[in-house]
Amino acid sequence: MTSLWRGMTNMAQTRDREVVIVKGQGVHLWDREGREYLDGTASLWYCNIGHGRTEMIDAVTAQMRKLEAFHTFDVYANEPALALADRLSALAPMADAKVFFTPGGGSDAVDTAAKLVRRYWALRGRPDKKVIVSRHHGYHGMNGYGTSICGIPANVEGYNGALITDVHVVAADSVDAVEELFASSADQIAAFVGEPVIGSGGVRPPRPDYWPRIAELCRQYDVLLVSDEVICAFGRLGSWFGCQAYGFEPDLITCAKGLTSGYLPLGAVITSGHFAEPFWDSPDAPILRHGFTYGGHPTACTAALANLDIIEREGLLERVVELSDWFARLLHDTFDGHALTSEVRCAGLLAAVEMKPELLAVDPTLAVKVATACREHGLITRAIGASLQLSPPLVSTIEEIQSMVSRMAAACDQMAATLQPARV
Fold it and tell me: Which are the contacts of 156, defined by CB distance < 8 A and separation ≥ 6?
């Protein structure tokens, strides 16, 4: 019996059903029993360059022989952290960008961004601006702030009330709702936080004018704009950052996942120079009493630098742009009209295939069951709400992506065959 307490899991139902992954190469994975799978999710959205890249292993090994770790508090820094901060600043869409590193996933980055925006307004002499606004369906990690601003009800429930109360969640696609809220309450609102494309909430791309209009409202009402790019950054949408794909400039960007392609944990908050000014340039600014033991970890930063090198050298941003329309057509051709599915949503190399609501009404676990059937067909995917996730590594070949979609279709066919004709 396992002693490992796995995240996002009902341990009572799954503790004896672990799938133990032991090897990865490219887009292929193998479990302890020798079964082979295609990684249809790039693990948790992050393995953009694929598994088993020897240049990543060589880079981090060389760095660990030189300096495995040292903190970045007070006057201390290390060469990989300095180099990565400069590189991210140059890639970011904001002028004179600054970079604050966090030690793990996007949860740390989101919590950091939320604390920074509240500290910013305090330094600007406006301490009443402390409400964080987010969107329905949005996912922003599982730390205190991320849980509180999450727009997925199941992730918020069960904690005996709100962890953080100064939050407000609005409809995911309504600019009017945001404008109405800002018009009535901008003096209390610190920031608007949103994913360029909602990820774990069901892969929900915005309409074309959504983000430019939100950015305009934030400027008009003096509200900071935080682009949560933990999923969307580093090529997933065919650009370095998702905000670039949708034509808006935020004040802060949170990122993680694709920053290292998951080879080592690392996150970051990237801010505009204007936002950083009261922290960096004011002689009266107090110490920012926020930071992490492993923030700016030299070995993790080395992994990120090597990962960015691969993305650039192999033209993965351009590859996503070239594949995105084909990817969407393939999924629509396969699942539009299927007995099990109601909708396909795509952006870049992100996709969700949603189950029919009438079938979910009868069996709310249908998407989970189809994801399990996918694994039986040699595809690792995941149920995200009512949908199946597909987010292949950016290095996937056309043939590999076609095989992923074929295996998902076979699983849907298998599940549809088990349902009564009247229900399908």
Answer: 147, 148, 150, 162
Question: What was the pLDDT predicted at 284?
Answer: 85
Tell me, what's the pLDDT at 422?
44
Among all chains, which residue has been given the structure tokens 């964080």? 132
**C-alpha to C-alpha distances, 24 to 47, 53, 311, 379, nearest whole angstrom:** 11, 10, 19, 14
Q: Which residues of the chain have pLDDT under 50?
A: 422
C-alpha distances (whole Å) from 226 to each of 65, 197, 200 are: 37, 13, 18
Q: Provide the pLDDT for residue 244.
A: 98
**DSSP annotation of 207:** P
- Reading the block at residue 43, the tokens are 């693990």
The model's pTM is: 0.96
b/e map of 21-44 (b: 16 or more CB within 10 Å)?
beebebbbbebeeeeebbbbbbbb
Structure confidence at residue 335 (pLDDT): 98
| pLDDT (0 to 100) of residue 410 | 98
Q: What is the pLDDT of residue 420?
A: 59
End-to-end CA distance of the chain: 39
- Of residues 85, 63, 80, 228, the one with CA closest to residue 143: 228
Q: Percent helix, strand and coil across the chain, each rounded to 5?
A: 40, 15, 40
CB 20 within 8 A of CB 32: yes
Contact 290, 118 (CB under 8 A): no
- Chain-centroid distance of CA 314 in Å reads 22
Task: Write the CB contacts of 2 (distance below 8 Å, at least 6 apart in sequence).
Answer: 15, 16, 18
Task: Tell me how crowded residue 64 is: count the other CB atoms within 10 A of its CB.
Answer: 13
The CB-side HSE value for 77 (13 A sphere, CA atoms) comes to 12
